[in-house]
Amino acid sequence: MADISAVDRVRVAHACEDYAGSWACNPATGGSVGSVGRYVAEGNLAKLCDRCGFKTVWAAVRGHLDAHPEILAAGRLTDAQRAERQAGRDADSAALLADAEVPFREGRWDEALALVDRAELASPGHAQFDRYREIVRSKMTDSVAAETT
Question: Which of 6, 93, 115, 140 has the least CB density, counted as fewest CB within 10 Å?
Fold first, then answer.
């Protein structure tokens, strides 16, 4: 999975955890890792396929499923179960963003940026993480400029 970013690998993992069990139960896939991987890639990671290419995403999904075969045996998740999982991921991400406020206010820019990165890895679609990074970097630049004048 070297061809996709760490954040995209998390997207792959989440899609596998949320949808692969359902696809494995679908007669169209026959439960094979290759077929399930194809359906997860095409059906649940279409935007990622558009950015990175289908073969790259399919390989990443298959790699994740090979490393975690229990996902295929987990069975179907209901929409409510998927929503609950996502809410948990979003809560984890929000908590990390909240934690980033302390180092941000204290001028510990690298620590604040690291927490924003961790928040994005917790739930990649939760917030506009690039905007958070932009705010931190802007304050960092302002701070450095103020110190040199």
Answer: 6
Helices 6-15, 109-122: crossing angle, 10 deg rounding: 30
| 3-state SS class at 81 | helix
pLDDT tens by residue, 109-131: 999 999 999 999 999 999 999 99
Q: DSSP H helical segments within the chain, as ranges?
A: 6-15, 21-25, 33-39, 46-52, 54-67, 70-73, 79-105, 109-122, 129-148
In a shared domain, residues 88 and 139:
yes
CA distance 114 to 110: 6
> What pTM did the predictor assign?
0.89
What sign results for the dihedral spanned by CA atoms 44, 53, 134, 97?
positive
- What does the alpha-carbon distance between residue 90 and residue 85 come to, in Å, rounded to a whole number? 9
Backbone angles phi, psi at 37, to 5 degrees: -60, -40
Is the domain of 60 the same as that of 95?
A: no
